Amino acid sequence: MSTLLLFLPPLTRLHAQGHPASDAARPGASQEYDWVLTIDGRQVEREGRSAATALPRADAVVAVVGESDLAWRRIELPRAGRQMRAALAGKLEDALLDDPDTLHFAIEPDAVGGDTAWVAVMARPWLADHLARLDASHVFIDRVAPLSWPDATARGHFHEHGSDGAALRWSHADGVVTLPLEGGLSRQLLTPDLVQAAQWTATPAIATRAERWLGAAVGVQTPAQRALAALEGPWNLRQFDLASRARGTRGLRMLGRTLMRKPWQPVRYGLAALVAVQVLGLNLWAWHQHRELAARREAVTATLTGAFPQVRAILDAPAQMQKQLDLLRASAGSIGEQDFEALLAAAATAWPADRPPADALTFEPGRLTLAAAGWSPPQIDNFRTQLQSAGWQLDAADGKLTVSPAAPQGRR
């Protein structure tokens, strides 16, 4: 499944001299996005920079938020249910520099009210403008992900900072922070135990400098490769009023993309195993039914050949057995249910007491037809009921009553 990662341009802030933000930050301004395309989520297929209308197509689109545009706070979540966003704004109001109404909040995955959890905070108009612009260009963002987040696994990433400087992005269980390499603050915070336990990466341009500063080897990681690593993260910052809304076909596509992600891999394996077990079970059951049916056919055939050795070719064992029984009965002078005497006896037994003898009758093997002139519907129904109780059936049509042996399922 192909995935397109979009790097959202950093939020342009006021300059120190009070100059307004550049045109690129204003809603509706022309905007280009750095992007990375991956097929398997592990290797970069292509990367580039394009306007929203010229971005390559992919099965899923993930927007990546710059680390300078994201803040983290750890709080006890209020028990607010659907009012969680408003409750977060009230709880964090004293710790925020901006008006809570201008900020967007995202809570830690799987956290509920009453839990102590991390909350990501960012500028809402800036994020909403990018999402709306991309949506208007038919680029639907499935997920908004951070490059780093608080995690039990400590990670340090060295990257360029400013024109000639470098900085360390440090993320661990207690939060996320950007530390300058100049000065002694970073060295005081990073004890030898932390240095040994953490995972270290650096951009190619400053990898050598980072190794000298750290005194240990670091993995070289381009921004595109680091964004691929963020795909494995649990966070989706698109929550509350900025949550993705999808209906119909798009909703099914998004559900399919969600199920194809790595956290859902055990579910996919379980479903595949369940389907395989069901298919195997159905095949075993069909095989068992086939064997049982074949055994019954063999038993019927054995009964036929044992009772009538003169029958050589077995085509339809039940029909051939019935034919042989009919021959035996005829040769012995016995009456069968297809004979005139049996049909006439059945009609006589069920004949209504208020009806005179039949004016006329017609016989053919298995069928006795009587004239029904003057019969009322209740008389016909009573006649039919009497015959059915003895294992016969009655058909009434065109002023005639036809008596015949009942079908096998109707016989008692």
TrEMBL record:
Which organism does this record belong to? Pelomonas cellulosilytica
Location (main, coarse): membrane
**Keyword flag Metal-binding:** no
What family classification does the UniProt entry report for this protein? Belongs to the GSP L family.
Report the SUPFAM superfamilies cross-referenced here. Answer: Actin-like ATPase domain (SSF53067)
- Which intervals hold domain GspL periplasmic? 263-396
The record's InterPro entries line, in alphabetical order, gives: ATPase_NBD, GspL_cyto_dom, GspL_pp_dom, T2SS_protein-GspL
| Gene3D superfamilies xref list | 3.30.420.380
- Its protein name is Type II secretion system protein GspL
Q: Is Transmembrane among the key words of this record? A: yes
Q: Which residues form the GspL cytoplasmic actin-ATPase-like domain?
A: 43-146
Q: How does it sit in the membrane?
A: Single-pass membrane protein
